[in-house]
Amino acid sequence: MTAKEFLNNLANGKIDVIQFLLDKFKELKIDYCVIGGLGVNAYAEPVASLDIVLVLAVNDIEKFLKEIKKNYKVSNFPHSINLVHPDSDLRVQIQTDLRYQSFIANALLKKVLGYNMKVASIEDIIKRKNLGLFG
What we know:
This protein is α+β, with helices and mostly antiparallel strands. It has a single domain (3-131), classed as Beta Polymerase, domain 2, CATH 3.30.460.40. 36% of the residues lie in helices and 26% in strands. It is built from six helices and seven strands. It has helices at 3-10, 17-28, 36-40, 61-68, 101-106, 122-131; strands at residues 32-35, 51-56, 73-77, 80-84, 91-95, 108-112, 115-119. The chain has a five-stranded mixed beta sheet. Strands 6-7 form a two-stranded antiparallel sheet. Strand 6 and strand 7 (115-119) form a beta hairpin. It starts with a helix and ends with a helix. 32% of the residues are buried.
């Protein structure tokens, strides 16, 4: 079993939500980075999680949401947007707090659990933790 298969089995996924999102970012030319637990997995031994926390370029968020609303339930909160796909238990959170925007420029292409994705630098991941930027 590959790492991707493991994660999708863990999420009871009938679809590969992470690959769908990565493909959609590429198709729509949206700059992004992964933060949170999945981001940490790029720098440490992987820990399975049913969450993916993302930062999208602020000017592209509406374009992205317009494109995916037909497949995802979208819930808006003061500093985040949550996405849920009916065919997966994976929880997707997009951070909208502007303090995260600089993380995108410092992001590195990493292989995480079988996926090639842009991940916030280790310094930015630590900064997020130290500043208490979780919401």
